[in-house]
Structure formats: structure tokens, C-alpha cells
Design a protein that fits this description.
Blueprint lengths: L12 H9 L5 H13 L11 H21 L8 H10 L3 H11 L18 H10 L18 H14 L8
Helix pairs in contact: 1-2, 2-3, 3-5, 3-6, 3-7, 6-7
Length: 171
């Protein structure tokens, strides 16, 4: 992801999308732009990224990217109906997205909360930002059972709701 210049004032959807794109010129760029079409209506310009707006945009970008890579189509061809159908086929959307991103060639990490930034892959860095936890798990928590955290789950639920997926309550 590219740094955001907060001195400029409010952050528009296009500016935040550009920060997610991170300089990519291919499929990821097109996926973020398509995700902005889906998650962008109602975007309120803010002084800094608002998680309620930013996380669903990031999750939608990952989903558009994964669907387009899996179907070998342009991200601009991914429809909201295709996104809803993807959710309806998933038993565990977080795990399904992880598998899809891995199949597309990205080494997405498990969400253990202590991950350094991924500088050379904006797709993996976007995933990392959605799974990193602000606090360590409780001491009695079995770290072998750690899975992507509340940011990814909540963001995927919002995307499922935006697309009208029947399985949105399962996310």
C-alpha cells in the first residue's frame, strides 16, 4: 500500500483506492477499482481512513481479485451477482478467500497478529491489514487455532451484505 498524505485534507474514495493499489498496474489495480464501484456508494470523505469504510473496500478488492483470478476474467467483469454467488458457495468465507488468494500465487499469512508489513505485494499486504489484531490473544488461547480476525470477518460480512448474498449471516 502507498502512504497517504494526510496534510492534503479529506481522504476521497479515489485517494484511498490509490493507496490500496500500491503502485500495481495490473489485475490488483483493476480489482481495487471494481471494488470501489461496489463498496464506494455512500463513501464519506474523511481525514483519515475510517475502518467502517476502509475494511469493506479492502475485503471487496481481495474478493474481486480472487474471483477474477480464479475465473481468469478481467476484474471489471466481476459482478455483484458473482460476488454474492461466491459467498453462497462458501462454508467459511475467510478460509475460502485465503485459499483463493493462495491459488492466485500469494503467500497470505495466517492471522497471528504479529506480522510485519509486506512491502512487495499489495494483495498480501491488504490481507495482512485485515487479519492483524491490535491486541494479543488471551493467554489461554491456543495459538495453533488462531484464524483471521474480526476485521476480515466483519469486512466480509459487509461485502456479502452489499452484494445481497443469501449467506451473509454465515460470514
Amino acid at each position: 500500500m502507498s502512504p497517504i498524505d494526510y496534510r492534503r485534507g479529506v481522504l476521497t474514495l479515489d485517494e484511498y483506492s490509490d493507496s490500496i493499489i500500491g503502485g500495481d498496474t495490473g489485475r490488483w489495480r483493476a480489482a481495487v477499482r471494481r471494488a470501489a464501484d461496489v463498496a464506494g456508494p455512500g463513501w464519506q470523505p474523511v481525514l483519515a481512513p475510517d475502518p467502517a469504510q476502509a475494511f469493506p473496500l479492502q475485503a471487496a478488492a481481495l474478493l474481486v481479485y480472487a474471483i477474477s483470478a480464479g475465473e481468469d476474467i478481467e476484474p471489471s467483469a466481476v459482478t455483484e451477482e458473482m460476488m454474492a454467488a461466491w459467498f453462497e458457495r462458501q462454508f467459511d468465507p475467510q478460509f475460502g478467500l485465503e485459499l483463493s488468494l493462495r491459488a492466485a500465487g500469494h503467500e497470505v499469512p495466517l492471522g497471528d497478529g504479529w506480522l510485519p508489513p509486506v512491502l512487495n505485494d499489495p494483495v498480501t499486504e491488504t490481507w495482512r491489514q485485515l487479519i492483524v489484531r491490535d491486541e494479543p490473544p488471551p493467554i489461554e488461547f491456543d495459538s495453533a487455532m488462531f484464524y483471521p480476525g474480526p476485521n476480515l470477518g466483519q469486512a466480509l460480512w459487509r461485502v456479502a451484505s452489499m452484494t445481497g448474498a443469501a449467506g451473509a449471516s454465515r460470514v
